[in-house]
Structures are given as structure tokens and as C-alpha cells.
């Protein structure tokens, strides 16, 4: 049995403390002291992941650690911000499990390292397993990607592939435990699109991350921008293996309404498409045009041949 | 039944959003954008309050909201930082209780207003009641009050009064429900000593907030500063009504080991005592000398006449 202090020290203190960029006083005092970059905006967000709600209670600890940070960093990606620092509130059940905690810390730290984001503080309390992660990033003023900048005529584009998060969760619930399966990878180890967000600064007109599902997050983008959109249903870039795993119909639903993909959904003036694609290709990431913003309200589903299908309004649920 | 989004909007969105100082993009996008003050250090900390562990499950909602923020702001106070912004992770049981939530929000916002600290983000999840609060403050470099600056010969001083938090909790557990009782006030509505922290910049050599109890937090100060201390037992400024409520012996124990006081415990070079007292008097706050830092390790308890009593070492528990 370890005290909270020992837990924190053992698994979450960098070595040496305070050695990270921009940290002028590291973990171990009442606060951590940071040196924000002059002239930048500080982008902040917090997300809490609760066992049994946001991830299966039997998910691998390394994935729980990774995902808890990934979902918060995804918000920074959607602002076009660099991930700089994070703080973690860890609520642990009374029964200590050092092996679990070591794996959890490993997943968390690995993503910190990959994202260049330093863990600069946190606390540990007892209770149902939950992880709250506050992230702090930086972005120059005027370069932040907000939700409100999409204009009629802008292309509706999405990074990477859709439906993989929902597909992976469905497989997990059916008992699939091969964590190398591409869909399980997508669900358990989503990659926040930080580099893509940076690359699309100055090109995209608006951005949001796809955490709740394409249609749900598109609604937020449309609300904030005061526009509507046409969505080309046949163009959705479905995750590799999704149709094989779920069948065509369920795969399409996962692409439209599945959560946990953490791709970026953006508005893009057509003249920026080639440059945007080139920049993302350099990151090994696809950028797919899935529709166009319009001045009609709501979302109009159209087929590849231009036929109009269902219509979706905010709060109206899935087609 | 409200969606998370409605809950957040209804109780936690400022009106108008983003109207607070230093907020260039308010709640409602993927991140909030803040404009840190050039040349200042950003002081950050997070504390999570869990029902049944950090406060009684039947504590008044207004007090739960107040305390959740107060305990985090207290960390900024102990750094000599201004409280500027905060984010809240609220985990709520499945059963909505709008009256409870309204009171909770009222307690939280009232302290935000009093402390000049803006709520700039948050999330709401379902689970056992818990509130994680990340605070961000600012302090000029070189003026931060750290734990590591105490030197032998410095006075050991404490703001306000001790034992009131533990006394109030004891009364609550005995069934006292008059929330105007001074000790219940101390426990349910602790006041983070932000103004005192600012006033003692440039005077104090070290600081920590008393959250776990005087001796426990003194240990942290001594460890970080690499010094010891003599503690004058008769000099502890016990909270008003504490002896009457608990009896002399239990009151003394509450002063030494009781948590939840959120006073500042500081090192102070003797030549700064008068100025420090004057500044705190202007805030209506007492500053009491309760001992002196030394180059012997551990804590030596002495009586007012200089007699040496018990000795306490870090991790050694109460005298």
C-alpha cells in the first residue's frame, strides 16, 4: 500500500523534475511554474475519462493511460495548438495494483513524449477509476482554428479515416482481444492529430475534432459557423477493415455516428485543398473531401451522383 | 434529465461568454484561448475533491462548490500568485438534482468572483460525485513563494487561526448543522489566503498552505528547505471557539494535526516581521510567530519558557 505521495513520485515525476521545456519550477511545490511563450495564446481544455463510461473497465492499462491524454490533446489539435503541458487528476479504486499503474503510466508517458507535452502536475484520490487531464497548448493569435470560421462554399474535409473507434469498441465488446487488430488499435490508441492541426493553420477556415461522431460534431461546427452543409455519403473514408468487421450498413453508421475517432473535421476554402493535402501527405495522413458548406441550414445527405437523400438537423439524431 | 452540454451551459457559462479578463476565446470551442500576462510565470495546480473522502456526502451544495475551488486556489496563494483562471471537471451521480447543482454553482461562482478568478472551461461526466479543479495563476519570476527558501533563523509564522477546519468537521459529524457556527464556517467555507500570499511577496522566504495539518505541511517545508524547526507549542493561534467545542487537549491536537485550515505557513526573516504584520493587518488577518527555523533536523516542540518537549521527524506522526 502506497501513500498518494509515493504513487505520484514513483510513476509520474519526471527525472529530473522540472527538466521539461518551459517548466521553471517542477512538481513538488504548491504549484508548478511555467514560462508561456511571449506573444502566444494559451489554449486550455479538460476531459475526464471514467471507467465503464468512456472506456471498458477491462481495457488494457497502457491504453487507458494513452487514451486519457489523447482525448484531451485532440482538443488542442482541433485548435491548431502545440501541446505543451498537462496535469492529471487520477482517481483510483482503493485496491492498489502496481502492475496496472505501471502500465497506465507507461501509456500516458509514451504519448507525452510523442506529443512533446510535459506532465507538470496532478493529484491522486481514491474512488471509482477516472482520469481527468487538463492540457495547455500554445498557438499564435489569429492562427487558432476555431469552430466558427466555416463559410458557404468551403469544402468539408476530414483527416484520416472514420468509424474505426466505434468498430474497435464493437470488436472489443464481442471479445476480440488481439490489440494489434487495426480497429482495436484505432479504438485503444487513437492518435491526436496535433501535427495535422499545425499543418492546417492558415489554410483551414474552421476545425473540430470528431469525438462524438461525425454528424454530432458537424452540428457543432455548423452551429458555431452559422452555416449548413451537404455531405457526400459515399465519400466517407471508412477505417481499414471496418466493412469486413461490421458489414456495409453498420460500417456506414459507424462512420456517420460512431465516436472516438479523434480525426479533425475542417472547413477548407477550395483553393487551399492541394496545399493542405500535400502537407498532410507529408505526415502520412489522408485528407478527404466529404462535402461542402452551404447557406442552407442543417445537413443535407447527397449521393456521389448529386442525388439528395436524407436531411439532418441539429439534435435530430442519426439519419 | 439534461444532457451534459445543457448542464454546462446552464450553470457554468459566463454571461456573456469570454467576457473575463485575459480570455480571448471563451467556452464553446474545442479549447479556451487565454492571453497570459507577458513576463509573468504561470502557476498551475489541480486538486480533486471526492464526496465521502474530502467532504461529507451530506455537506451543503453551496459549500461543496466553494470548497472545491478554495482548496485549489489555496495552492496559488501559497505561491504568492494571483488567481486568474480555472477549469472544472465535475463528475455527477446519474440522478440529476437541479437544486443541488444550482447551489453548487452558486458557491463556486461566488468564490470565483471574490478571488477574481474566471471559470474558463470544464467537463461533466457521470459517476460518484467528485470535483477536480485546475487553477492557473500568475506571479512575477523571482517573486514566487516556494517551499524551499526557509533558512535557519527565519521565523516560523502562520496566518489566521488553526484547527478550525478539523473542529468544524468534528461538529458536523456530531450533528451540528448551524452553518453560521464559526467552526462550521471555517470547515465549509475556507478562505484561500490569496491576498495574504500577494502581500507577503518579497518578505517571506518560503510558504506552503496548511491543508493536511500543521505538522504534516511543516514537514514538507522543512524537507524542501533542508532545515529543521522549533515549534512553540503554547503559541498556536487556535480557531475561535475551538477549545470550547473540543476541550483543551483535542483543540491542541486539531491545531497541530487537523487538516482543512488553508492558512499559509511561512518562513519570515525576523527583520520583515513588522512589515508583514502590518500588511496582513490591513487585510484583517493575524500573523502569528509559532517558532523558528533551525539547522537541526526535524521539529522540536518547546514551551513558551523555552523548555524542550517532544521531538517530531518527518513521517513520524503526531507528537
Please supply descriptive tags for the structure shown above.
10 helices; ATP-binding (chains A, B); Phosphoribosyl-aminoimidazole Synthetase, Chain A, domain 2; 319 residues; magnesium ion binding (chains A, B); nucleotide-binding (chains A, B); seven-stranded mixed β-sheet; ATP binding (chains A, B); 2 domains; Thiamine-monophosphate kinase (chains A, B); 60s Ribosomal Protein L30, Chain: A; globular; alpha+beta; homodimer
Write structural notes for this entry.
Two copies of one chain form a homodimer. The first copy, chain A, is α+β, with helices and mostly antiparallel strands. The mean pLDDT of chain A is 91. In chain A, strands 8-10-7-11-9-12-13 form a seven-stranded mixed sheet, sandwiched between helices. In chain A, strand 4, helix 3 and strand 5 form a beta-alpha-beta unit. Chain A folds into two domains: 136 residues, PurM-like, N-terminal domain (60s Ribosomal Protein L30, Chain: A); 158 residues, Phosphoribosyl-aminoimidazole Synthetase, Chain A, domain 2 (Alpha-Beta Complex). In chain A, helix 4 packs across helix 5. Chain A has ten helices and 13 strands. Chain A is globular and about 60 Å long. Chain A is 32% helix and 26% strand. In chain A, 51% of the residues are buried.
